[in-house]
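Ops channel
N.P.: pipeline sanity check, posting one input/output pair.
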C-alpha cells in the first residue's frame, strides 16, 4: 500500500496558505505546503511506526503544558503568574481570537487528530499476517480511535462545536469544513470509544499506552460532560474502571514524589524521560512552575489555599503547594506577599516527573457524582465513596446529608484532590457553575477580582488564523 503524508499546516489546522483571491487554475494545483510521498507501509513494523507517531505527537505544548493553563488558570485554582500575555488573557477572561495559546492549542490538537487519522486510514490496508495473528491490528486501531476521541474531547470543551475531520483532506473543500454541532462531536467521541473498548489491551505496565481502563474512564468523563449528561452511563463506565484492577495509593504524597511512576492508582500517565530522551522535552512544565529566579507560571490562588485551610486539608495542601520566601527576587506580584509565596508542588522532581491524565480518585469521585445525581436519595450511596478519598488524607466523613449539599461536597473534593491536574475548569463548565464561581473570586484582601464572566466567555474563540483561512467555519 502507499501512504500519502500531508504536512502539519495542511491538515492539522484545517488550513492552507492559499488566499481566497487566488485564480481557479492555481487552486487546482497541488498546494505547495502539501507534501506527498510514495512511502510503502506494508509490514507490522510500519503499522507500529504510524501508531508511535500518534503517541509521540502528544509531546507538544498542549499536553505538556497548556492543559494546566486551560484547566486551572482559567478556573479558580491558579493565577497566570509569569509575564506571558496569552496566559494572562486566559486568566482574566479577556481572551480573543488572536491569543497565541488559542491558536496553538487548536493547531496542536488537530495535528494529533491528523496522526490518528493516518493510522485509522492506512493500517486496515497493511497486508501483513503478523498483525492479525496476534490481534495487534485491532489493538492499534483501538488505540488510535481512543486518542482521536480524547483529542476531540478537549476541542469540544474548549471551543464548542468544531469541524469533524475523520479522514485526510484531499481537496480545498475538505480542508474548509464547517463546524459540527457540540452534540455531533460528542456522538463521534462516543462512537470512537465504543469501537475501541473491545479492541484495546486489558492492561499495560507502561501507563502511557491505551488500555480498557483508559477507555472506560474516558467514557465515564464524556457521558458526564455532554450537554445532557447520562448518569447511568457514567456509573456504568466508572464501575468498569474501578473494577479494572486499580487501587488508591496509600499515601497521597507518593503520587507526586517521582518515585512511584505508573503506580496502582494511575490509569493514564504522560511518560517523561528528561530533556535528552526520546520524549526529549522531559516534563517541561517543571522548569516554568518551580524555582525562584523569575516569576513562574501558574501561581496557586488565594481562594484555593483558603479552601485547603477551611477543610483542614494539610496533607493535600502540602503535596500540592509549597511556600517560599522570595523577597530578594526582582519581580513583583499582585496577589501574594513575596515573603510567603506559593508554588505548585505536584511536579517537583525536576524534568522527570510524569503527569497524570487520568487516575482512580478522579473516577471514584465521578462515580459518587453519578450516584448523587441518579436520585434525590443518592447522596447516601455517594457518601462512602467520597469518604474513602477523604480518609486517605486524614479527613473526617463528609457532612453532606442531602443531594444539593453532596453536589457541592463532591465539587470541593474534586478541586482539592485534583488541583493542578487540568480538571477544575471543565468540572465547573459541565456543572454550569463556572459563572457564579468565577464572578465570586476575591483576592487575599477580600476584594472582588471582577472577572465579569458571561456565557460568551466560557469557550475559546476560533483562532483568527482559522477564520481567515476557512470561510466555512464562521
Amino acid at each position: 500500500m502507499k501512504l500519502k503524508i500531508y504536512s502539519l499546516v495542511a491538515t492539522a489546522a484545517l488550513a492552507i496558505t492559499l488566499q481566497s483571491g487566488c485564480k481557479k487554475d492555481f487552486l487546482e494545483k497541488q498546494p505547495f505546503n502539501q507534501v506527498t510521498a510514495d512511502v510503502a507501509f506494508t509490514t507490522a513494523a510500519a503499522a507500529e511506526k504510524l501508531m508511535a507517531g500518534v503517541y509521540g505527537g502528544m509531546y507538544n505544548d498542549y499536553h505538556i503544558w497548556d492543559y494546566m493553563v486551560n484547566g486551572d488558570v482559567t478556573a479558580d485554582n491558579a493565577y497566570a503568574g509569569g509575564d506571558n500575555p496569552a496566559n494572562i488573557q486566559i486568566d482574566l477572561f479577556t481572551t480573543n481570537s488572536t491569543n497565541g495559546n488559542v491558536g496553538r492549542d487548536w493547531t496542536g490538537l488537530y495535528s494529533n487528530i491528523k496522526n490518528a487519522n493516518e493510522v485509522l486510514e492506512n493500517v486496515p490496508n497493511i497486508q501483513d499476517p503478523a498483525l492479525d495473528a496476534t490481534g495487534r491490528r485491532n489493538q492499534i486501531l483501538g488505540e488510535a480511535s481512543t486518542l482521536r476521541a480524547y483529542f476531540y474531547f478537549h476541542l469540544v470543551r474548549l471551543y464548542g462545536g468544531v469541524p469533524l475531520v475523520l479522514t485526510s483532506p484531499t481537496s480545498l473543500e475538505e480542508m474548509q469544513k464547517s463546524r459540527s454541532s457540540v452534540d455531533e462531536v460528542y456522538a463521534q467521541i462516543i462512537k470512537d470509544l465504543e469501537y475501541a473498548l473491545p479492541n484495546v489491551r486489558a492492561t499495560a505496565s507502561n501507563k502511557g499506552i491505551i488500555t480498557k481502563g483508559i477507555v472506560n474512564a474516558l467514557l465515564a468523563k464524556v457521558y458526564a460532560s455532554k450537554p445532557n449528561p447520562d448518569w447511568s452511563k457514567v456509573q456504568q463506565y466508572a464501575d468498569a474502571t474501578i473494577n479494572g484492577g486499580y487501587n488508591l495509593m496509600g499515601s497521597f504524597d507518593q503520587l507526586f514524589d517521582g518515585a512511584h511512576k505508573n503506580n496502582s492508582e494511575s490509569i493514564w500517565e504522560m511518560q517523561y524521560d528528561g530533556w535528552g530522551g526520546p520524549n526529549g522535552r522531559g516534563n517541561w512544565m517543571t522548569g516554568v512552575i518551580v524555582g525562584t529566579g523569575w516569576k513562574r507560571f501558574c501561581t496557586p490562588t488565594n481562594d484555593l489555599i483558603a479552601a485547603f485551610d477551611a477543610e483542614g486539608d494539610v496533607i493535600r495542601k502540602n503535596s500540592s503547594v509549597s511556600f517560599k520566601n522570595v523577597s530578594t527576587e526582582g519581580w513583583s506580584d499582585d496577589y501574594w506577599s513575596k515573603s510567603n509565596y506559593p508554588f505548585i508542588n505536584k511536579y517537583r522532581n525536576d524534568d522527570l516527573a510524569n503527569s497524570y491524565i487520568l487516575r482512580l480518585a478522579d473516577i471514584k469521585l465521578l462515580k459518587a457524582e453519578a450516584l448523587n445525581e441518579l436520585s434525590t436519595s443518592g447522596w447516601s450511596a455517594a457518601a462512602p465513596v467520597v469518604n474513602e478519598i477523604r480518609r486517605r488524607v486524614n479527613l473526617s466523613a463528609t457532612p453532606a446529608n442531602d443531594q444539593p449539599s453532596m453536589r457541592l461536597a463532591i465539587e470541593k473534593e474534586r478541586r482539592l484532590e485534583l488541583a493542578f491536574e487540568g480538571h477544575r475548569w471543565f468540572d465547573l463548565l459541565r456543572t454550569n457553575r463556572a459563572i457564579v464561581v468565577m464572578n465570586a473570586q476575591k483576592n487575599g484582601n477580600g476584594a472582588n477580582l471582577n472577572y465579569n464572566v458571561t456565557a460568551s466567555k466560557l469557550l475559546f474563540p476560533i483562532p483568527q488564523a482559522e477564520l481567515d483561512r476557512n470561510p466555512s467555519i464562521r
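N.P.: looks fine end to end. Confidence is low (pLDDT under 50) at residues 1-39.
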